Amino acid sequence: MLVTVCCSEGAAAGVAPPEARLLGARAAFDEANTLWDAGRYAEAVSRDEQALAGFEAALGSTHPEVARCLDLLGRHLLLQGSSARAEPLLLRALALRETALGKNAPEVAQTLTTLGDLYAAQHLYARAEPLQVHALAIREAAFGKEHPLVAEPLNDLANLYLAQDHYARAEPLYVRALAIREAALGRDHPDVAQTLHDLAGLYHQQMFYSRAEPLYVRAVAIWEAALGKDHPLVADPLYWLAVLYQQQGLRARAQPLLDRALAISETALGKNPLDLASLLDKLGTLYWGHRRFTGAQPLFERALALREATLGGSHPLVAESLSGLAANHQLQGSYAQAEPLHERALAIREAALGRDHQLVGYSLSDLASLYVEQGLHTRAQPLLERALTLRRAALGENHPYVADDLVALANVYVAQGSYRRAEPLLLRGLAIMESVCGERHPTVARYLSDLANLYVAQGSYRRAAPLHARALAIREAALGKSDVGVALSLNDLARLDLARGAYADAGPNLERALAILEGTLGQKHPLVAEALNHLARVRLGQHRLTEALPLLTRAFTLSEQRLREEALGFSESRLASFLQVLRRDEERLYALLRAHPDDARVRRLALSAALLLKGRSVEETADISRTVYRSLGAEDRDTFARLRGLRTQLAQLSLQGPGPLASRAYQERLEELSEQGAALEADLARRSASLRSLTALPAPAEIVDRVAAALPGDAALVEFVTYAEPSRVSGADTTGSRPPRPLRYLALVLFPDATTRALDLGPAGPIDLAASRLRDALANRDASFEAPAQALYQLAFQPLLPLLGKTRRVFLSPEGQLALVPFAALHDGQRFLVDAFDFTYLPSGKDLLPHPREGVPPGSVVVLANPDFDTARSALPEARRDAPALRKELARRGWAPTPLPGTRQEAEAIQRLLPQAQLFMGPEATKERLLRLPTPGILHLATHGFFLEDAPEPTGSRAVIHFGALGEDPQASNPADPLLRSGLVFAGARDPASSGASQAPSSGSALVTALELAGLDLWGTQLVVLSACDTGRGDVKLGQGVYGLRRAFLVAGAETVVMSLWKVDDQTTSTLMEAYYRHLLAGQGRAAALREAMLELRRTQSHPHAWAPFITMGQATPLRLARNPP
């Protein structure tokens, strides 16, 4: 507690100053105290500063009066939260007083106490403690050990120990301070109430409720009698008394105290915005115990506004309010709203306090906890490791906050399957918490549950069971039987019973847990969805499918609703990670369908999941692009332009290699650019959220019917799904890690009348191997293709024939390796499927749904073809001229971008068919031209493609460039982002100044990555044709499609993309493309026209290597050419 002590130090005056100046300074000093007592804090500080200037002018800068004024100004600034301004003033006051009065003067003790409070407020306890101890010693020597002025440093030192959870050291100091004050001041003095309040806090923190309650009650009574019932000091013990009652489950007693504390704060503390903000934060936290999150939010928001208005937006106290508001969103499962608040709090603390301050550790742990709840353990791990290092350094090895970080890090290891790394951390954290807080503390229960969950994951059920039972007993005793913590323990026990197959035991626990969660958190919270899924598993284990299905349906609906809310504020990478978190429950639906393929209800639920979740990250990212380009203002488009610029920087740096940068600095720069890009993506997502919500996907109950209605009457949709079989631990894990789960293929079929069929195609391994063998055979014009074409047909398509019946028009949404082969080239032993089926490829069946059209489609046709790879580098912009690392690496691998004369013929043929076509060839076929194009109606790109991997391809075709690590280190890894590992090559790809056959592209000039292409404005572009080779390649992401060029152009807005699946002969491609455009102009659909062109080419070239490499992805309808200008 800070107490203003006004000791006269004027006796040590030197030469007499002008009387008027000295009188003015003293008047300002007195007025500052008066203004402060009246709650006019800013004016008080201004008078402090006037007094300081007057004393320095009148008495000199080293006079004790100056020290007195410095001390007062420092304390006032500290109470306003301006520690950075206060510290140098207090240090100067301390030095002046020690010099003028001696190191053991009582006035020195006053400044020591204030400095100690300043460091304690910053959690710099190691710096605060010696100051408080010295202050106590000075006053004991000066006034005697029983003097009331000794009680103040005793109380402050006890507060310091309490903040560090050093209960045994704090209690005797509080007891002694209380005895001194009662003896010297009387039992009803306000200072006695302060010590009672602090001692109650000590007992409260240890959960000694019966000892804490009477002390709080007595403190309230003393302050009410001495100061009035509405004095601001009364609000604080009322608040803590309400907390105490709430923790005992006595919420009816807590609520009126809470309401009264808030009323007092509004009236009495309104004059001091910082005190009011502090209490508002506390009250918001208390509302959490009542599960009144909507009521807590305006409290946190108001506290934040008060602190920002008073202190500015970069003060550590602002970070405190941001953390509280973020936690309030997080507790409601609103993760997208919580994350930017946590990130801002962290940034403020790092900037204001330094990266190594322990308060930074709080923000790191907070942000990590958010990531853990979302299942983003890879993101959480480095934050927790750093937080643990900071807290160990600041608090020592045995502090509860250190235990929290140990256990949180252990849980990350458990989620990653690293069980051996997790167990010692869990045991250490549990030992710390039991020793500090006792064995019956709720946090001990949480740690016990975490340790038990580790043992369940390892199959050590006998070790887990007593820990879960003990955790439940602690929580019921400490929190009451209806607390969320109790529900979590019940849920954990049920998971143990599920693993053991003890369904009769699991059911009642889950029913009770579900009732508690719905009653406290509401029916839409993520924890409710989790409990519903677990209860459904129990019912399935009991062979009660009819009871399980409504639970599964409701759980999936809640998860979908949560995904829609989160997707409105996530970057693409974050959304993809979040979808992986939901993947386990999605896969359980597919496994259920495997067990019940003939149940129409199960088929519909599984198909709903596949339609909504498969390719969802493409859908949401494209939606952001469309909204930015078509609906948002100039500021948002500028942000998107900055994002495109960052992507170009990232692409250039990735492809150039480290160059002069050290490996670590290079990786850090790549991570920095990626993080900046993700932050801009998330910002754009949030800005476009309201508009994007207007075009949301159909609800889970409607999606199947809506997609069925979009199917042509003679067609069917085949949705392929790859999923991992759910695992059930059956014995102790001796490896210390989680084994991979085997994958399977599932085919879901939908007809226009909304009837469904389903078939389990079996393990994914044989199918993927057959797909790879077929693709290898088709990519080699001299290879035999019949056997691999028949093998894949028998595994992946023949089983579907009974389901399809007479349907021959099929919309395919392939998954896994099936996305990299043309189904038209499968062979049934007598003919290719192209002869019997009309295939159209979709990223997901939901792409059949009508999309908002851009009005009259652009009539322009743009062709970039036959780039001049030898364009003089002097003709290129300066930024494009340097990529020595890339040139060196490609030269080492023996690649040179060979000319493509057939693409000139291809372009000219298109212009003959479409006279309005603009041709950019030779030196005009540049990356810059492509990236700056206005939206075309048709975009045709005929050039080399590239896909980064370690298998170089032979030259002589439009083959994709396969190369591995770029840069001077052959062992360096490829870029992590698959969108940086695929792209197209344009003019200037070879450096004429280089000698030898192998001349490599300047990455800034010639290569455009898929990441950059995703930023194009193709909203209104009906068709993109990539007549380079392997443009359909990319990284396969289960559930989210192929990450490569196909994804980039779909995200950019193209309605249909034509791409190739292997390297193609230059002249053959030209012939095929000319035929394709002829059939398009004849009015055929975008997929049907390609089929006709393939059949036409097949008459002269029978090997599917020549006629089958291209597929269409997206809309299959004819082009809307009638509206194009002539």
From TrEMBL:
Cited Gene3D superfamilies: Tetratricopeptide repeat domain
Entry keywords, A to Z: Repeat, TPR repeat
A Pfam short name: TPR_10
Domain CHAT intervals: 787-1115
Repeat is among the record's keywords: yes
Name used for this protein in its record: CHAT domain-containing protein
Organism, as annotated: Corallococcus sicarius
